[in-house]
Design brief:
Number of helices of chain B: 17
Strand content of chain B: 5-15%
Number of strands of chain B: 11
Largest sheet of chain A: 2 strands, antiparallel
Radius of gyration of chain B: 22 Å
Oligomer: heterodimer
Largest sheet of chain B: 5 strands, mixed
Shape of chain B: globular
Radius of gyration of chain A: 11 Å
Strand order of the largest sheet of chain B: 8-7-11-9-10
Order of helices and strands of chain A: EHEEHE
Order of helices and strands of chain B: HHHEHHEHEHEHHEEEEHEEHHEHHHHH
Largest interface: A-B, 13 and 12 residues
Helix content of chain A: 25-40%
Helix content of chain B: 25-40%
Distance between the termini of chain B: 51 Å
Number of helices of chain A: 2
Chain lengths: ~70, ~425
């Protein structure tokens, strides 16, 4: 099983910031424009938003993945 | 080689020669003949026996993280493909000298340990990695030339003398022909590291302990030290007039006792830095009673790291020392991840202003926000360690912080700098 969560590759991220526009429920930006992702499972009703945010990432730094539980 | 009986070293006086440091002599290296005289021949053990002895010894890695060595060996042995052994002798912590002392003075213990680790995991190749231009290189070359008949060939490699270059994934990247910068993992090196093979990366002191465990057994090893973290450990102690003195102590020895044995005192001392630049400042009174264990350091919000103890000289300014180190750590960022690349310089600038007493009160909430949002968001632990170090200064030197914020920096800001800062190599 596992949980659906957003994972960020911090080396690939160059602070485009699209993710925070598309998924403000879980992503805010720090003062330099890099995303701060709220931890935890993404509830079913928000998964579509999370997926859109991940797909919009120009550097593919953000991925929506099923992680191992715990 | 004829088998010989050698009595294991038993007595241990903090600050004097102990186990790993038996028979060492400043200015010279223990050659192979002397090594065999001191320790006897390395027993030829099957892989399962090595694994079993390490397991029963309870040895935890001596590089800083304190991971159980046996578990690491087993993970690598179970990996897909022929494993590779990497002995990490980089000693990225500027205030540490224990790995250099070990490599220069007792290199054959480390080289024995490499052979044992290779046997345990079934490796056919090994690398010994130190910093470019390291003073230990001539000693290591001489020692390695004495043992060309070792079953597993060891090659000596160097990486740039930068703080994060000795991080595990950075070493793997360098050995694979890339830049010595941390990678965003997974896969972890034990799964797929050098040449895409399962890679065992051990600190050189951990490997030296393997060499003694194989000879005298796990029960002998754990006769000394804290039950949760058995054996002896190398520490580096600095203080007023004492620069990086290396000693071997039983784990669990109180920091006060270690400091005393190094000829220093905690009287009239405000604070002690424990664990290096990823560690924390502790009030001298707290540190004096604290046993040197991972558990005890974690409980006070710190980290044991590689066993660094730096006693702030009386009159020195802890905030100024912290600002100097924060600036060094900011420059040492591999500049790969935004929060570290931007956050550490911002924190360092704020600390410099605070130390100098040239303070804009609006910076206070910003500094606290940065300390809050920067950790946990990098590919490696560099920003996390740097933030822990700075945050510990703000709490341990809280009364100084009030004075500095009020524009009245202490007199100590004029005294000579204390903590060592290497010549800086900026990334990119």
């Amino acid at each position: 099983m596992g949980v659906i969560a957003l994972q960020l590759n911090p080396i690939q991220c160059v602070a485009h910031g699209l993710c925070a526009d598309l998924f403000p429920e879980r992503i805010t930006l720090d003062e330099w424009g890099y995303p701060i992702i709220a931890p935890g499972e993404i509830p079913d009703e928000l998964v579509a938003h999370a997926r859109r945010a991940a797909r919009a990432c120009p550097t593919r730094a953000l991925v929506l993945a099923r992680t191992k539980a715990g | 080689m004829t088998a010989q009986t050698v009595a294991p070293p038993r007595r241990l006086e903090p600050g004097r020669s102990g186990r790993l440091l038996s028979g060492i002599d400043a200015g010279s290296s223990i050659n192979l003949a002397r090594h065999l005289e001191l320790w006897g021949a390395l027993p030829s053990l099957p892989a399962a026996a090595v694994l079993d002895m390490v397991e029963r010894s309870g040895l935890l890695g001596r590089g800083g993280a304190g991971f159980p060595t046996a578990r690491k060996l087993r993970s690598v042995a179970a990996g897909k493909g022929r494993p590779i052994v990497v002995a990490n002798g980089c000693e990225g912590e500027p205030a540490s000298a224990k790995d250099s002392v070990l490599l220069a003075r007792a290199p054959h213990l480390v080289l024995d340990g490499i052979q044992l680790a290779a046997r345990a995991v079934g490796a056919d190749r090994a690398h010994l990695v130190v910093h470019h231009g390291s003073a230990v290189l001539p000693w290591l070359r001489a020692a390695m030339a004495e043992r060309r008949h070792d079953p597993v060939a060891v090659t000596l490699e160097t990486v740039p003398a930068r703080y994060v270059a000795s991080e595990e994934s950075a070493i793997v990247s360098a050995l694979n022909g890339g830049e010595a910068v941390p990678m965003f993992t997974p896969p972890r090196p034990f799964e797929r590291g050098v040449d895409r093979r399962p890679t065992l990366i051990n600190n050189v002191e951990s490997l030296a302990h393997l060499a003694t465990i194989a000879r005298f057994g796990p029960e002998w090893f754990s006769e000394l030290g804290d039950p949760a973290q058995p054996g002896t450990t190398l520490v580096t102690v600095s203080g007023a007039g004492t620069d990086r003195r290396v000693a071997e102590v039983a784990t669990g020895t109180s920091i006060g006792r270690i400091v005393k044995a190094a000829g220093l005192t905690l009287t009239n001392c405000d604070a002690v830095l424990v664990g290096g630049y990823f560690g924390c400042w502790l009030p001298a009174k707290t540190a004096a009673r604290l046993p040197l264990t991972h558990q005890a350091l974690r409980e006070v919000g710190g980290a044991l790291g590689a066993g660094i103890i730096a006693v702030l000289p009386p009159g020195a300014c802890g905030l100024r020392e912290t600002a100097r180190v924060a600036s060094y750590l900011a420059v040492q960022s591999a500049r790969q991840c935004g929060p570290c690349l931007n956050g550490l310089p911002a924190i360092a600038d704020a600390m410099a202003a605070l130390a100098a007493g040239q303070w804009d009160e609006q910076t206070w909430p910003a500094l606290n926000r940065w300390l809050d949002v920067v950790p946990g968001r990098g590919a490696c632990r560099h920003p996390d360690g740097a933030v822990r170090f700075v945050a510990s200064a703000l709490s341990t030197f809280a009364s100084d912080v009030e004075m500095h914020r009020a524009g009245r920096p202490c007199a100590g800001t004029a005294s000579a700098p204390f903590l060592p800062i290497p010549t800086q190599h900026r990334w990119v």
